[in-house]
Design goal:
The complex is a heterodimer of chains A (213) and B (370). In chain A, 20% of the residues lie in helices and 36% in strands. Chain A is an alpha+beta fold and 213 residues long. Chain A has one domain. Classes of the chains: A alpha+beta (213), B mainly alpha (370).
Chain lengths: 213, 370
């Protein structure tokens, strides 16, 4: 009897605990285009991103920013915000993860960054240079937020492009539907958070693949 | 009242069905090869819930824009806001676990649990509105400043949760220890009871009797009820959340004064605004529709409250069943209930600590804006 009462309580405690879990619930949507940059010698030098935020987050980011004309923002007026964006993104590795033949590559701080305001949305342009240019038969660049706060999605009209390596083949993969096992893991994020080395968030990754001869 | 109960029960049922399906989907493919047909459709249901939630959120901006020209769109906006609140609260950060643990630890009534859930969701909405009203509307602060404010409020909220948990843990832990001791002292009260009303004979065992007089119903089982001016079962040692030795009677708890206890938990939980609400409010403000945003935020809070109340009700029903079962076994039964309360209090501390450490919160408004 006693054991029954106890297990009953425990079961329900666990039940409502399971509701307080980190499910996929993004608050920021990014539609992006990425240009993979190759040097003349056939080595990968970096990635040039253009991230367009959803209109609600754009409005949030623009809050309090002084500008001359209502509903219009010049690149100069947005310069401080662009600076803030790239500085803040450093902590998250710019949500960009590159591998050359499976080996992880490191990026330097972004260069050539600016914000553009168009159709009530903000687009962040920035170039991520590689720390060291890399050559490989198979390059893989992934763009995703492991915490799922930001939802990244390839731009429909022009998802990816390749610059400077005509001999290479560029393809891309959208994130797959999480498998049941992955769904299960998703439900355990609270009780068992992801470690730093975890690659779990990759199931939400947008993959860019470059194959060179 | 009965209709409200009906609504809550319906929601509860829906939540249970959702959970059951979730459990089935989890068991259908334990880490192994995914079962293509059955398991995927069940897992797809969870996915569907979250896809709906995302769709609701994304459609909010369209409805806010539309309500600028079309008054009718405002009602659609409010409807979507409510649904978004219901679905969204299933995700983390809406104090379900803290509120539920609090209610379990304090043996609150069903009605009060629902009211506290609604109050915490209400405060959460109001805090979001106040932050945006002061920071954005009055001061014209930037997103960075607002993100920082939300972050600070969050830290205070989590700190308060830890404090409430610690306080409760102390009070309940003491009750538990006393209940333990009471078991070994069982012969003493029997002697005291049979020794009559003389204050001299009563004075000595009273301190030992303390623990067994904590719960009115259980006191009666032990036979101390009916002693009008002996020791007061109901009054003297009813340990409240704040550890007052002279806590109120259960019936008094339902009165106005008793609400003060729950208020602290509600404020601690409700203090932390939802990032979604902040973004929606600022978006509405940018469209010169701040008041529409305020309406949507309040209704979103209502939706959140329904989910939180359903989960809190679930937790409290479990406690009631457990305590009814425990009630049939006076000694160990009470001990178990005390242990459950201590466990629930410890959970509150754990939640607070995890939230403060940033493990459970994934809503980082400052991700892009410092």
């Amino acid at each position: 009897m006693m054991r029954h009462a106890c297990s009953c309580t425990c079961a329900v405690l666990l039940l409502f605990l399971s509701f307080d879990r980190a499910e996929a619930h993004p608050h920021v949507w990014v539609t992006f285009h990425s240009e993979v940059l190759y040097a003349a010698d056939g080595s990968l030098t970096g990635v040039r991103h253009a991230w367009t935020f959803d209109d609600m987050f754009s409005a949030y980011a623009l809050q309090g920013l002084s500008h001359q004309k209502k509903g219009q923002y010049t690149r100069e007026e947005l310069a401080s915000l662009a600076q803030l964006n790239v500085e803040s993104l450093k902590e998250y590795g710019y949500f960009t993860f590159a591998r050359a033949d499976g080996k992880k590559l490191k990026f330097l701080d972004p260069v050539d960054y600016w914000l553009e305001y168009n159709n009530a949305t903000l687009t962040l342009h920035f170039t991520l240079p590689l720390k060291e240019a890399a050559t490989a038969k198979a390059m893989q660049i992934e763009v995703y937020d492991p915490t799922i706060f930001v939802d990244f999605e390839f731009a429909k009209d022009r998802p990816v492009s390749l610059s400077g390596a005509p001999q290479c083949l560029l393809t891309y993969d959208m994130p797959h539907q999480p498998t049941p096992a992955e769904q299960l893991r998703l439900g355990q994020l609270d009780s068992d958070p992801l470690g730093i080395s975890s690659t779990y968030g990759e199931i939400f990754a947008n993959k860019i693949l470059v194959k060179c001869p | 009242m009965t209709r409200l109960r009906g609504v809550i029960l319906t929601v509860l049922l829906a939540v249970l069905v959702f959970c059951a399906i979730d459990v089935v989907s989890a068991q259908a493919a334990p880490f192994g090869a995914p079962h293509p047909a059955g398991a995927m459709s069940a897992a797809g249901f969870t996915g569907w819930i979250f896809a709906q939630q995302a769709a609701f959120y994304r459609s909010l901006s369209g409805f806010i824009r539309a309500s600028k020209e079309d008054g009718a769109a405002m009602w659609s906006l409010f409807g979507i806001s409510f649904l978004y609140g219901v679905f969204h609260a299933v995700g983390p950060g809406h104090g379900k676990a803290v509120i539920s643990s609090y209610l379990v630890a304090n043996e609150e009534t069903w009605r009060r649990g629902v009211v506290l859930s609604f109050a915490s969701a209400g405060i959460q909405s109001v805090v979001a509105i106040v932050v945006v009203a002061i920071a954005a509307v009055l001061l014209g602060a930037t997103a960075k400043a607002i993100g920082l404010t939300v972050h600070l409020v969050e830290i205070v909220s989590y700190g308060l949760v830890i404090l409430i948990g610690l306080r409760l843990f102390y009070v309940k832990g003491r009750s538990f220890l006393l209940a333990c001791r009471e078991l070994t002292w069982t012969p003493a009260p029997v002697l005291a009871l049979t020794s009559g009303h003389s204050s001299k004979t009563l004075r000595l065992p009273t301190s030992r009797l303390g623990p067994m007089t904590m719960r009115g119903g259980l006191c009666m089982v032990d036979g101390c009820a009916g002693h009008e001016h002996g020791f007061h079962c109901h009054d003297d040692h009813h340990a409240s959340a704040w550890g007052h030795a002279h806590g109120p009677e259960p019936t008094e708890l339902a009165g106005a004064g008793g609400w003060r206890r729950g208020l602290s938990a509600v404020i601690a939980v409700g203090l932390r605004p939802c990032s979604g609400a902040i973004i929606v409010l600022i978006f509405a403000l940018a469209q010169d529709l701040f008041w529409t945003g305020v309406g949507a935020t309040l209704i979103m809070g209502l939706g959140t409250a329904v989910t939180v109340a359903a989960i809190a009700t679930l937790a409290m029903s479990a406690r009631q069943i457990a305590s009814r079962v425990a009630g049939t076994r006076a000694g160990f039964g009470m001990l178990t209930m005390r242990a459950v309360e201590v466990g629930a209090a410890a959970l509150i501390v754990a939640f607070g600590a995890l939230l403060l450490a940033g493990y459970m919160a994934s809503e980082q408004l400052w991700m892009f804006t410092g």
